[in-house]
Design a protein that fits this description.
The chain is an alpha+beta fold.
């Protein structure tokens, strides 16, 4: 508002109404009979430093959700062209990385996005452009799963407690903001987990490659196992949604626990199925048998299979 109205007048108007900054930008009208954004929510946004001037073009009915998203991705917004230039990438490389990372070229980018693209530009001194794009695609897929879990955790764990207390919009806003503040701590956890997983992946890749009889660099020699649930389709049609959700969580928890305990690596979880790899076929059979044993007392009977030999390791998955 600087330069538009006299500061003394502005201070007087702020004293007259706590949401004067929102009123001045046309985002809140205390005298308008039409629905307004929740005044208490806007007061909370003011208390955490949200600038109404950033949202003058946002419809009233989209204002709260837009501000919540801006808390997750703060800072000024850039076009694709501005982000590409700031990252120092060619059009072709930028567009390929953006597509792999799930960015829309007609969307908005932040300074953090620019830093990420710039990191890819620096990595081109070591890796090929094609290799980096493949890495970006796999990374985005992994982050999508983490993001989905994070969002579901709020919906399943946090939202019901807010509803039990009355479900006010301002409490949702406060909890959304608190969740956003925890993202930085989440990144610290993710870094530690990534380095732990990277150590295991390097060992598996090196030993699997040494054991392979193929000259192809993409080939490794590993045991691959699958375990799934017989009767899961019937169970899913009969069980209540919350009961089924608990069963799926329990399946993943027990399956991952058995794989890790026997020194294997989980490749992926697909509904009622787990895919894992191990260096030794006996090790893999013990994993499969262990997962089967972990569910013998349940209504869904597990079954497993193991194969061993040269396979293709590509993009965090295995083929052959």
């Amino acid at each position: 508002l600087q330069g538009r109205i006299d500061p003394a007048v502005y201070d007087a108007r702020m004293a007259a109404h706590p949401l004067q900054a929102w009123i001045d930008t046309g985002l809140f009208d205390p005298d308008d009979p039409a629905p307004n954004p929740d005044a208490e929510v806007l007061e909370f946004y003011t208390s955490i430093g949200i600038d109404p001037a950033q949202f003058t073009d946002v419809p009233r009915d989209e204002l709260v959700s837009t501000i919540n998203m801006s808390v997750l991705r703060p800072g000024p917004r850039l076009t694709a062209a501005e982000a590409r230039e700031a990252a120092g990438l060619t059009d072709a490389v930028f567009e390929a990385l953006a597509a792999a990372g799930g960015y829309a070229l007609d969307g908005q980018f932040t300074n953090l996005d620019v830093e990420a693209f710039r990191s890819f530009a620096l990595a081109r001194n070591l890796f090929t452009g094609e290799g980096l794009v493949d890495f970006a695609r796999v990374l985005a897929a992994a982050m999508a799963r983490v993001a989905d879990v994070t969002s579901a955790l709020f919906r399943i764990d946090v939202a019901p407690r807010i509803e039990a207390r009355g479900g006010s919009e301002v409490e949702y806003a406060r909890q959304n903001h608190q969740s956003a503040l925890l993202i930085e701590e989440l990144f610290t956890t993710m870094r530690a987990f990534f380095l732990q997983q990277l150590t295991g992946a390097v060992v598996l890749s090196d030993q699997g490659r040494q054991a392979s009889t193929s000259d192809a660099i993409s080939t490794v020699n590993l045991a691959v196992g699958f375990v799934d649930m017989v009767g899961y389709t019937h169970l899913s049609s009969m069980a209540a949604p919350d009961d089924l959700a608990r069963f799926i969580i329990e399946f993943e928890k027990r399956a991952v626990g058995v794989v890790v305990a026997h020194g294997g690596r989980v490749v992926k979880l697909i509904g009622d199925e787990v895919m894992f790899v191990a260096l030794d076929p006996i090790q893999a059979v013990r994993i499969a048998a262990g997962i089967v044993a972990a569910f013998e007392s349940t209504n869904a009977v597990p079954r497993g299979g193991v194969a061993h030999g040269d396979i293709i390791g590509l993009g965090g998955d295995y083929y052959g």
